[in-house]
Model the fold of this input.
Amino acid sequence: MFIPWPIYVWLIFSSACVLYDFLYIYLRPLSFRYQPYEYTFEPYQIYQYFDTLKMNMNDRYLIIQNWLNLVEVSLILLTILLSWLPSKKLKFSSAIMLIVVSSFVFWKTVIYLWYDRAFITVSVHRMYSLGVVFYYCTIGLWIIFPLLTIYSISKRIVAHLSKN
Done:
């Protein structure tokens, strides 16, 4: 009713990616190259050259941000479940909750981009165009789609309220 089906697709895709990211950080150093879970996290074996913060075992912000990822996924999955229940109040509440969670995701990503100042490394400088694709385009999804989620859900809520 308030949540369009493409938003559900984005939320499921996003939750799977964020949960994968959570496990990579949580299992460090076992998820690094030449460690037991190396092949489970094969994309990160390349990505770590562009986002060097992922390899820093002592960065408290990264650990806090990682636990926020788990909170994000939990809230998104709870909201999806609530939105499927027949109550109109629950559907409305879940739509509002998704707006809040999407805002949370947007700002968490912006702060991560601001904080991750060690992006330009020698590896990135040699393969700059590939680095832009791996870093800015992958992280950019979590800036663009939360904003689109906020816009589309807000538009439906306003349309529904203006009818009444």
The radius of gyration is 18 Å. The helical segments are 5-26, 42-47, 60-83, 88-115, 122-126, 128-163. The CA atoms of residues 12 and 77 lie 8 Å apart.
